[in-house]
């Protein structure tokens, strides 16, 4: 089974909100007198789930990230790097969106079970992805790893039916009764092909729209809620301060 798994970590953003002199994925988390960049948390969660090959999707400036993670030997895995190319258009954005970043690694992820996590987030417990992967049955095309949140305006919120099937993704709603957000996703090749068709052939760039379209077209999405789990997104200094407070309270 190991050879059928691949980890996918998009890390192509510029991180302009933080304005750091290094990639935000290397933001230092000091635990037990040791340095651990934030991106290593998702990498550890992936390897704890049995992933042996991990792909970072980067932009052309992420030399320091490559220098730190290297070929992956220190982390008991193999690491590949894919450079996300600019998207044609007026803006020529080097960070054209999550869907494009995920599809940039299509040549490596096709025919694999993909476990995807964000590079600037911390999921706890450390085996959150391992727990979720155990719930991935043969009928499920995509499994959303979910956490409770009191900040729905920041995340993709998940609506499920009584059978735990995902019926809708509501992206960053200002007001909602929903309390569960997705933090990571595990998917089978059928969704890889669906995503690739949307991005490469149909020109759809909104990832929430792609997931909702996939659900409407009959792909089976399910949710795995991480009981007592936490999900921290380090996109702003306010969120970094919140993370520091949580770790001090442990």
Which descriptors would you attach to this protein?
two-stranded antiparallel sheet, 250 residues, 13 strands, 28% helix, alpha/beta, seven-stranded mixed beta sheet, globular, Spore Coat Polysaccharide Biosynthesis Protein SpsA, Chain A, 28% strand
Brief sketch in words of this structure:
A hairpin with a 5-residue loop joins strand 9 and strand 10 (166-171). With 250 residues, the chain is an alpha/beta fold.
The structural domain count equals 1
The general outline is globular
The CATH class assignment is Alpha Beta
Quote the distance from N terminus to C terminus: 35 Å
Instruction: Please name the fourth-level CATH homologous superfamily.
Output: Spore Coat Polysaccharide Biosynthesis Protein SpsA, Chain A
Q: Would you list the SSEs in sequence order as H and E?
A: EEEHEHEHHEEHEEEEHHEEH
SS elements, strand count: 13
- Strands of the largest sheet, in order across it? 5-4-1-6-11-8-12
Counting DSSP H or I runs of 4 or more residues, the number of helices is: 8
What is the CATH architecture annotation?
A: Alpha-Beta Complex
Structural class by SSE content:
alpha/beta
């Amino acid at each position: 089974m190991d050879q059928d798994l691949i980890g996918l970590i998009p890390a192509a953003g510029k991180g302009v909100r933080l304005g750091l002199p290094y990639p935000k994925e290397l933001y230092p988390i000091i635990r037990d007198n040791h340095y651990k960049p934030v991106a290593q948390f998702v990498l550890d969660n992936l390897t704890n789930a049995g992933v042996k090959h991990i792909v970072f999707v980067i932009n052309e400036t992420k030399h320091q990230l490559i220098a730190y993670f290297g070929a992956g030997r220190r982390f008991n895995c193999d690491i590949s790097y894919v450079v996300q190319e600019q998207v044609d258009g007026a803006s020529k954005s080097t960070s054209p969106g999550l869907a494009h970043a995920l599809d940039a690694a299509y040549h490596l992820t096709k025919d694999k079970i993909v476990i995807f996590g964000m590079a600037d987030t911390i999921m706890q417990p450390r085996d959150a992805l391992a727990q979720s992967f155990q719930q991935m049955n043969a009928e499920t095309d995509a499994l959303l790893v979910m956490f409770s949140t009191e900040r729905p305006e920041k995340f993709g919120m998940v609506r499920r039916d009584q059978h735990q099937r995902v019926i809708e993704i509501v992206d960053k709603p200002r007001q909602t009764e929903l309390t569960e957000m997705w933090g990571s996703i595990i998917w089978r090749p059928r969704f890889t092909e669906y995503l690739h068709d949307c991005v490469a052939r149909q020109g759809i760039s909104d990832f929430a729209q792609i997931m909702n379209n996939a659900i409407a077209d009959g792909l089976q999405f399910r949710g795995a809620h991480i009981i007592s789990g936490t999900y921290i997104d380090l996109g702003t200094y306010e969120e970094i301060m919140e993370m520091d407070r949580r770790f001090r309270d442990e």
